[in-house]
């Protein structure tokens, strides 16, 4: 018997408030096994959900195959080759003291890399894609630099109808995140729209489907009434 499809299909991109590392999740409520994406999964280790904030949410994917493929290709490459990898406890580290006086904020490197990856996965043909009319020598050089596997992934595009594509919407915590693709010589596809994301209490995204995700979670009852 087939499961009932979700009314909303969101893919959440989270950043860690302290370490600036990034997780990709199919749900807002993070599970501890997601720490495998950053090689921090250990027996008994529980994820600190209050340390993670969504910086982008991709919504409107109403095609099951496209949803599964996009999510899989956003995961780190290492997970496809070693899904059961467990990282042993590493040395403890101390976070640097942050002095905001005279400090210029910039997009964390891990966030920029994941935004670029999202654009590559959604794009039919990035400007830097070697599949688009370059000479054979240029193509060979590019293949040597990024590898055959990465080349094939950049060429991948889910086969969607125009109606399905028009519903792609990315909600952004900050405008600066969206613009990271331009400095990497990429452009967002025309069928992807962008909009600012409101974070209730600095953590809960006011996006389609979030009320359903929070339903039944007693601790979040007071948050739901603020979400449209």
Assembly context of the chains: single chain
Enumerate how many helices there are, as a single number. Answer: 9
Biggest beta-sheet profile: 5 strands, mixed
SS-based structural class?
A: alpha+beta
Q: What is the number of beta strands?
A: 7
- How much of the sequence is in beta strands? 5-15%
Fraction in helix: 25-40%
* Unreliable parts: 1-5, 80-97, 125-146, 153-158
Radius of gyration, in Å, reads 19 Å
**Secondary-structure element order, as H and E?**
EEEHHHHHHEHEEEHH
Average residue-wise pLDDT: 74
Shape: globular
Q: Kindly, what is the distance between the CA atoms of the first and last residues, rounded to a whole number of angstroms?
A: 33 Å
Strand order in space, largest sheet:
2-1-3-4-5
Care to describe what's here?
The structure is a single chain. The chain is of the alpha+beta class and 228 residues long. The protein is 29% helix and 14% strand. The chain contains 9 helices and 7 strands. It has helices at residues 64-74, 77-81, 109-122, 136-146, 148-155, 162-165, 175-178, 210-214, 221-224; strands at 11-16, 22-25, 52-59, 168-172, 192-196, 199-200, 204-205. The strands form 2 sheets. Strands 2-1-3-4-5 form a 5-stranded mixed sheet. Strands 6-7 form a two-stranded antiparallel sheet. Strand 1 and strand 2 form a beta hairpin. It starts with 10 loop residues before the first strand and ends with a helix.
């Amino acid at each position: 018997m087939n499961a009932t499809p979700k009314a909303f299909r969101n893919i959440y991109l989270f950043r860690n408030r302290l370490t600036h590392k990034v997780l990709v999740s199919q749900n807002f409520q993070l599970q501890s096994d997601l720490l495998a994406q950053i090689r921090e999964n250990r027996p008994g280790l529980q994820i600190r959900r209050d340390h993670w904030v969504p910086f982008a949410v991709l919504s409107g994917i109403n095609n099951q195959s496209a949803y599964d493929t996009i999510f899989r290709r956003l995961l780190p490459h290492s997970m496809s080759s070693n899904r059961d990898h467990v990282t042993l406890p590493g040395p403890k580290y101390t976070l640097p003291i942050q002095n905001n006086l005279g400090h210029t904020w910039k997009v964390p490197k891990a966030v920029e890399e994941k935004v670029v990856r999202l654009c590559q996965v959604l794009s039919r043909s990035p400007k830097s894609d070697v599949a688009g009319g370059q000479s054979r020598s240029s193509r060979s050089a590019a293949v040597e630099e990024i590898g055959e596997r990465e080349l094939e992934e950049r060429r991948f595009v889910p086969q969607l109808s125009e109606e399905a594509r028009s519903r792609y919407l990315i909600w952004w915590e900050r405008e600066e995140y969206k613009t990271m693709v331009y400095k990497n010589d990429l452009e967002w596809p025309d069928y992807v729209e962008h909009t600012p994301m409101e974070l209730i209490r600095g953590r809960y995204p006011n996006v389609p489907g979030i009320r359903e995700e929070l339903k039944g979670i007693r601790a979040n009852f007071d948050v739901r009434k603020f979400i449209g």
